[in-house]
Specification:
By secondary structure, the chain is of the alpha+beta class. Helix content is about 15%, strand content about 35%. The longest helix is centred in the C-terminal third of the chain and has 10 residues. It starts with 16 loop residues before the first strand and ends in an 8-residue tail after the last helix.
Amino acid sequence: MHSVYVQDYVWPLDEPAHGDVRTHGIYSFRDVIRCREDYGYALGMAGPLLFGKIKIWGEIVEHEAGYRSEFAKIVSLDYGNPDLLEKFLTIYKLNQPAI
């Protein structure tokens, strides 16, 4: 998976995501984000998106919409492009979301 914010960042499959909170870190939101419209940032995002829950730890900075953390691990993938969602549920060995 790739970051929507830092274009050259790739989330490693077998490791937690990591970033320096002073420059970018791993962003997460307080409220559930289910689609591109909920995301609310005017980035020139291209390609399909996936949304879910993560566990965050390390240095954490709280901001208006949520958090920026040093580390994150995927807990669940719940919404997004159906083909990509199925692929990454298998790759990350996660359960199918309850709909």
